[in-house]
Design brief:
Blueprint: H1 3-39, H2 47-56, H3 58-77, H4 82-97, E1 98-100, E2 106-108, H5 113-132, H6 146-153, H7 155-188, H8 193-211, H9 215-222, H10 225-228, E3 231-233, E4 236-237, H11 238-246, H12 254-264, H13 268-281, H14 287-292, H15 299-322, H16 340-345, H17 352-379, H18 382-390, H19 400-407, H20 414-433, E5 435-445, E6 450-461, E7 467-468, H21 473-479, H22 482-502, E8 508-512, H23 515-518, H24 521-531, E9 536-541, H25 542-546, H26 550-561, E10 565-571, E11 588-591, H27 593-597, H28 602-617, E12 621-625, H29 630-638, E13 643-645, E14 653-654, H30 655-662
Helix pairs in contact: 1-2, 1-3, 3-4, 3-5, 4-5, 4-7, 5-7, 8-9, 8-15, 11-15, 12-13, 12-17, 15-17, 18-20, 22-24
């Protein structure tokens, strides 16, 4: 999945998330209104009746809320002015769904959820496309008031979008009415009432699974009032049958899934979500589970999400073939709690219907369990916990801003979540099956022909004894686990320093740290505790400084206050900006190998010389990395670069071989 697809789905899902509180409040308002109307015979002018009126109106307000949240999220995520697109979408939406009749009355088109999703998305992308065209940019030069510039440049795109869609509105209206009539006709023409019920149920489930639109709303969009009130068995309406014995816990019969999670899931986060969702699920409200787990676009749970209601349908249908239903006095609808609905259908005399509900819930648990087990394995972070413990990172709290990366998977498609988790699990398995090593690559003073220091580099040894570079680091960084390696390196260097003492050395050692570790106060404490008595340089990638924040800079200042030196790594590797050089809190700058490789050209030599000169004039020590031949070494000497490292001098070595290297008489006369 590429970036644009991911951002689209993330934006859409964030918009649905923001609707959830209103949806839940509305559902409980309707529930409260129904209970008070059915059992208390309250005055129509009472507070409860007013509440019922307000919550019933949510069906009309819901599309407007969707337009606002979708426009808002897409605007923010794509960095455009969402106020323009929101107002424009609302105007056009009202023009489509509301019409004024000749007698002065107003007509409102119901069942327009899909339009309220599609319209803001279409307008959003249309707006982005038009605003990028120079022909529509009235002001092309910079002015002091950027907001004024954007407002003026939005005039033509807004006018074009409005004019285009206004012309298309009659055709859109006709298409919407046709689609609604088509699906309604398709379902109503089924000769079998049972087939019609199953078809409508499956169709609404797919809408719910793909879009997140309220399941009951999507079901009742195509299930007419007459259909729901038609008896599927004598004295038992289709509505009571579906909500009382099939959709237990809401669309997808998710009460079974909730209980399965509570009983069997090893994922603590999933169990917490299930406990939060449980009381709502009793009243067939499952938005918390649907978005929190998530179920939306979750391929691992799609099969049971569709199959469990069908099995419940078959089970209940078979049951009522043999067990008659007496006169049902109480009205049973979607919000009647499970067990209560079964008890009321039995007219408070028979518990057989309650037992049927319990049986179907247990049956659903059995069906959901194997899929839940697979989902647990795909999303589990148990391997990461083992990884943390083995390499000494257990108990370290990940800083909040970086922990957000782990939470973002809720906004991704589930397929992407699974793909990422499988990849990181394989990476962790690979590391745990082998052995991490810490090697040291010499940094040489090319003027004095002596060892200046060492850079610590991670190496990986597999089960066959083969040693290679750490190609798994990008995966760990993406998953937010790079700090684990950093902690292991810190502890290993503290341990290895005793070896340098034994050979009479106290060398400078460079450590590469991830941004995640730099902003973690516990890891900074660990560095100070373990390494404050040694000569340590902290190497940080240059691009990290471009996105630094207050916590990051505070951590660097703490390290410098305790005697640590900061070195900017890979300077010139694609993110370079000279404006940062004058205020970087660093002691040294390491010039990236790519710049040294380019000295074979005249321009490459000029560029390298000027960068070295600028860095030295600003007071930075310059280190050149990636030296591979004598020509490069000679050029560095001409540029007055003092410190260099690379394969020309030595590869990274195990600490036990360092002693052999430092006593070699001619360090710069070839590869060791």
């Amino acid at each position: 999945m590429n970036y644009s697809e991911s951002l689209f789905l993330i934006s859409l899902r964030q918009a649905f998330f923001e609707i959830v509180p209103f949806s839940i409040i509305s559902s409980f308002g309707i529930l409260l209104g129904i209970l008070t109307s059915d059992y208390n015979n309250v005055n129509p002018n009472s507070v409860f009746s007013t509440l019922l009126y307000i919550t019933n109106s949510f069906a009309y307000i819901f599309p407007f809320l969707l337009i606002i949240t979708i426009s808002n999220r897409f605007g923010k995520n794509y960095n455009i002015n969402y106020v323009y697109t929101t107002i424009l979408t609302l105007i056009l939406y009202i023009s489509i769904v509301i019409s004024f009749n000749t007698d002065g009355s107003i007509s409102y088109i119901d069942n327009n959820i899909f339009l309220s999703i599609a319209l803001p998305i279409i307008i959003h992308y249309y707006f982005i496309y038009l605003t990028k065209l120079k022909i529509f940019q009235i002001i092309t030069y910079d002015i002091a008031n950027e907001q004024l510039k954007n407002s003026i440049n939005s005039i033509l795109p807004i006018a074009i979008i409005y004019t285009t869609l206004i012309v298309l509105i009659p055709y859109i209206n006709t298409s919407l009415v046709f689609l609604y009539d088509f699906f309604t006709y398709l379902f109503s023409t089924q000769e079998s009432h049972e087939i019609q019920a199953i078809a409508q149920m499956l169709f609404s489930h797919m809408i719910w699974w793909v879009s997140g639109i309220q399941g009951i709303d999507s079901y009742e969009t195509f299930a007419s009032f007459n259909f729901l009130n038609k008896e599927i068995f004598e004295n038992l309406t289709t509505e009571a049958f579906i909500y009382g014995f099939v959709l237990l816990g809401g669309v997808g019969a998710t009460l079974s899934l909730i209980i399965a999670i509570i009983l069997y899931s090893k994922n603590e986060g999933q169990r917490k979500i299930a406990w939060y969702a449980l009381p709502f699920s009793i009243f067939n409200i499952n938005e918390i589970l649907f978005f929190g787990l998530p179920i939306i676009l979750n391929l691992s749970l799609l099969i049971p999400f569709l199959v469990v209601p069908i099995i419940n349908f078959a089970s209940a249908y078979l049951f009522f073939q043999y067990v008659p239903v007496g006169d049902v006095v109480s009205h049973i609808d979607w919000s009647t709690p499970i067990l209560v609905s079964g008890y009321l259908i039995g007219n408070s005399e028979s518990y057989l219907f309650v037992l049927l509900q319990v049986f179907n819930v247990i049956l659903g648990i059995i069906l959901y369990r194997p899929f839940l087990k697979r989902y647990d394995e795909e999303t589990s972070n148990m391997k990461a916990l083992v990884f943390e413990e083995k390499f000494g990172a257990k108990g370290i709290k990940v800083y909040e801003e970086l922990d957000t990366k782990k939470k973002l998977h809720y906004y991704q498609t589930h397929a992407q979540v699974i793909k990422n988790q499988i990849r990181i699990n394989k990476t962790i398995d690979k590391i745990l099956d082998g052995e991490l090593l810490l090697h040291y690559q010499p940094q040489v003073d090319i003027n004095l022909n002596t060892i200046y220091g060492f850079e610590s580099l991670i190496r990986y040894k597999n089960k066959e004894g083969e040693i290679s570079g750490p190609d798994f680091i990008p995966d760990l960084e993406d998953a937010g686990y790079s700090y684990i390696l950093d902690i292991w390196v810190i502890n290993k260097i503290a341990e290895d320093y005793s070896h340098f003492d034994n050979i009479g050395m106290a060398p400078k050692i460079s450590i590469n740290l991830s941004p995640q570790s730099i902003i973690n106060s516990e890891i900074i404490d660990l560095i100070i505790e373990k390494l404050k008595n040694f000569n340590i340089y902290i190497e940080i990638l240059e691009r990290t400084f471009i996105h630094h924040n207050e916590h990051f800079m505070n951590s660097l200042n703490r390290l410098q206050d305790h005697g640590f030196k900061i070195c900017i790594d890979d300077f010139g590797a694609g993110y370079s900006s000279l404006q940062y050089l004058h205020n970087l809190p660093a002691h040294a700058i390491k010039i990236d190998k790519a710049l040294l490789d380019n000295i074979s050209t005249k321009k490459g030599k000029i560029l390298f010389k000027y960068i070295v000169q600028i860095c030295e004039d600003l007071g930075y020590n310059v280190i050149a990395e990636g030296v591979e031949n004598n020509e490069q070494l000679t050029f560095l000497q001409e540029c007055n670069v003092q410190i260099a490292q690379g394969f020309y001098f030595s590869d990274a070595k195990d600490i036990n071989k360092i002693n052999q290297f430092i006593h070699k008489p001619h360090l710069i006369n070839g590869i060791v």
